[in-house]
Amino acid sequence: MSQGQRGAVGIPLAVLLLAILLHIAGCSPPPEPVVCTHGTSNCTVTNSFGSFPDRSICRAGNVAYPRTEQELVAAVAASAAAKRKMKVATKYSHSLPKLACPGGLDGTIISTALLNRTVRVDVERRLMTVESGMVLRDLIEAAGAAGLSLPHSPYWYGLTIGGLLSTGAHGSSLWGKGGAVHEYVVGLRIVTSGPASQGFAVVRELGARHPDLDAAKVSLGVLGVVSQVTLALQPLFKRSVAFVKRDDSDLADQVAAWGRLHEFADMTWQPEQRKVIYRQDDRVDVSSPGNGLSDTLLARSAPTRMLADARAAEELLQENGTAAADLCAAARPLADTVERQAYGYTNDGVSFTGYPVVGYQHRIQASGTCMDSPEDGLLSGCPWDRRIHGSFYYNSGFSVALSKAPAFVSDMQRLRDLNPDIFCAGVDTRVGVLLRYVKASSAYLGKPEDCVDFDIIYYWSRTYGMPRAHADVVDEIEQMALRKYGGLPHWGKNRNFAFSGVITKYPGAGKFLGVKDRYDPNGLFSSEWSDQVLGIKGSPDIVKESCAVEGLCICSEDSHCAPEHGYFCRPGKVYDEARVCSLLQD
């Protein structure tokens, strides 16, 4: 590698190092997902990255912004009377698949951005009722102010309670009811379409014992619009967090055991380094000293110019085919800096002095400061803000049954051992592979058994059909998980091919579809995408040139890859039933 090439490799990583160390006072919060050209009509809706997996533009005839349940009922009734398709958009729309797309200019978007208030808090009964558009940040802060804690949540607090429930979002735990937020739902109010005799809209109130609650608390948005959610909380508590780095020689053994040892346990696997970062995270008494804070490094704001420059350099490296070994060498300082910065944790909200970090649940469980800093005119922003041409990546989430996880991890390690360096190009080295624990759920579209959830972030080109370096690594891992080990894609984080036939893996699917038929007999809250993933009509696979590069299909011929760039459809290296786009060099 020449000196100039080494410098090019170092550019995006040096920029990211600086961004990690900076604490920006201001930040332009992420934009809302709905944009209209004429007031509230002639609209488009997207997600936080500005692109759905198939890169299509999702259009809608109009958008409604109800402020009360009464206005929400009126919005649903108006569309139902006109037999218009409806879909819900949340404040930031973090789901990658096309869950919010109504399917064209004859459809309506109903935004919950203004349904964002606390309805009531019953401290004695430890119950909290909020509107469905409330973001997780506000929910956990309000709970903490009342002396209560939401036991578990996702790690990013920019999700709304309605949105995270619709996709089964979760934290990490096998203890008690587990780490999925929907396990703590004891009631909700949902507005569905109705007959003319009922004004075309019906408010359904589902209590803890209502048989339909198991359908509504993970629903993909196809039943109606959730208006309010009631959560069972716990007395305010603190957590004690420490991260321990070890070699990965016994990872296959630890993966099944670690979640039983610590209430909030997770793991981050760094395959190219042969290391695992174990999260030792347990509940402690509220009187324990400490006011720790989680401020995840990659969810902090950074200067816009810095983010754009880092992305431009990253794109250049991908296009030039930089050697994987050189990418690994350049990435190690970044990983070391993240570790020295304690992954964004501080003991007092300002500085890190050592482990354990002890703090209140609402200060530890989730973060995302780039979304709540003062507006600065887009001088800085969240790294993925679609307006600044910064980070642009895939996020694949999938789960494997806890009983099968050791064998799956062993297979991943076998793949890594063939050439560890290619994981530096195939997997984002800032994040590694995140492993979280999720408990079996009674929800019809929840996890049918205890499982380990795997999260992988990796480069995505803004040009259709442009392959990413060593794309076959992640693609083989994911096909192995979904096909060989019967895994499940995360409802809100994956690409089209992962959802093909997925509904057959849910024992409660028939019951869910039965509730759907009763709540929405005309399919007004359904879309082409939801019909495909629920097995009602069609397939989520899109078979065309370069479809496998885009994750729209699994390749069956070379044209599904990028032969003009040297990528051809070949069997996997460890799981030979996989079909992946591999770079073939002379």
Automatic annotation (TrEMBL):
Q: Give me the reactions it catalyses.
A: L-gulono-1,4-lactone + O2 = L-ascorbate + H2O2 + H(+)
Q: Which UniProt keywords apply?
A: Ascorbate biosynthesis, Oxidoreductase, Signal
- Domain of life of the organism in this record? Eukaryota
Name the InterPro entries on file: ALO_C, FAD-bd_PCMH, FAD-bd_PCMH-like_sf, FAD-bd_PCMH_sub2, FAD-linked_Oxidoreductases_BP, GULLO2-like_C, GULO_Plant, Oxid_FAD_bind_N
Record-level GO BP terms: L-ascorbic acid biosynthetic process
What is one term from the GO cellular component aspect held by the record? membrane
Q: Give, as in the UniProt entry, the pathway in which the protein acts.
A: Cofactor biosynthesis; L-ascorbate biosynthesis
Signal sequence residues: 1-27
Which protein family is named in the record?
Belongs to the oxygen-dependent FAD-linked oxidoreductase family.
Stated name of the protein: L-gulonolactone oxidase
Species this protein is from:
Triticum aestivum
The record's gene field reads LOC123163995
